[in-house]
Amino acid sequence: MKTGVIDVGGGLRDIYGAGVLDYCLGENIPFDYCLGVSAGSANLVSFLAGQKERNRIFYLDYSFRKEYMSLKNLIKKGSYVNLDYGYTVLSNTGGEYPLNYPALKANPAEFFVVASEAISGKTKYFRKSDLKQDNYDILKASSALPLVGKPYVVNGIPYFDGGLNDPVPIEKALADGCDKVIVILTRPKDFIRSPQKDEKKAKLLRRKYPQAAENLRQRAERYNRGVALAKEYEKAGKALIVAPDDIAGLDTLTKDKAVLEQLYDKGYRDAVKIPDFLELK
Q: What is the per-residue burial (b if ≥16 Cβ within 10 Å, else e) of 61-100?
């Protein structure tokens, strides 16, 4: 049986996913296939490297640093989130909390990262082989939020957040041969995404990146369709959705340490249903 896990991201909300994956590390639950969107890709590299609680520190400590996330970054660098600070300065060899790349590379699990080509609008699925020691640019590409940040360039191609194109990539996981998939959401399971905010943002983005703007305009519909599909596969026994029952108003870039800690703990607790689903007990 080929088991997979999808972490859909969601900015700081994805501390919930960090809790889920830390439970899996603590219980020695492996996956054959890992697929990350935006912040979910960062969660999964720490998981694959076996670095329990590394993600927790990024959310609860590093994200509060002005060097990482601030209006100053937006004004000076054109991006609210300094992706180079998170995925290079902190994560490279000699950084404050380096990624254990050798362990990541040695992990036999497949790993994919979703990104959206800013100019063509095409979906890009990066592979584990696109990661190199001290070069984690594909994580930055998948996490580049439009409007509050510039697209991130990898091999000459600018990318935006993978959630624009494939926000809940369960079809990709099943097409790649997974028999059972854990789908980590960072909003309640029955949340329906409204297109209104995205449509307003798309109008602003359209001037420079018309194809990316069209993807942004369709994001809500794609998210809702992806969750609905995950629910159908859950009924069929092929998927398990792990999602918070409440996020206490936490948005993508909301900095509230108390709520973030609660959401991490909630993820850790909610993950207890994973072993039964995977028939590990």
A: ebbeeeebbbeebeeebebbbbbbbbbbebbbeeeeebbb
Per-residue burial over 36-53, b = 16 or more CB atoms within 10 Å of its CB, e = otherwise: bbbbbbbbbbbbbbebbe
**144: nearest Cα among 58, 39, 255:** 39
Confidence (pLDDT) at 103: 98
60 three-state secondary structure: helix
pLDDT in tens, 159-171: 999 999 999 999 9
Contact between residue 171 and residue 238 where contact means Cβ atoms under 8 Å apart? no
pTM: 0.96
User: Tokens 């190199």 correspond to what residue?
Assistant: 132
> In whole angstroms, what is the distance from residue 242 CA to residue 64 CA?
26
By C-alpha distance, which of 27, 84, 86 is closest to 55?
86
34, β-bridge pairs? 5, 111
Alpha helical stretches, state H, 143-190: 170-175
CA–CA separation, 186 and 7 (whole Å): 9
User: Is 234 in contact with 171 (CB distance < 8 Å)?
Assistant: no
**What does the pLDDT read at residue 254?**
80
Span 176-219, pLDDT tens digits: 999 999 999 999 999 999 999 999 999 999 999 999 999 999 99
Parts of the chain with a pLDDT under 50: none
Distance CA 122, CA 209 (A): 12
- For helices 196-205 and 210-235, give the axis angle rounded to 10 degrees: 150
Q: Which two structure tokens, joined as six digits, stand for 157?
A: 């191609």
Beta carbons within 8 Å of 234's beta carbon, 6+ residues apart = 240, 241
Q: Which residue type sits at 138? A: I
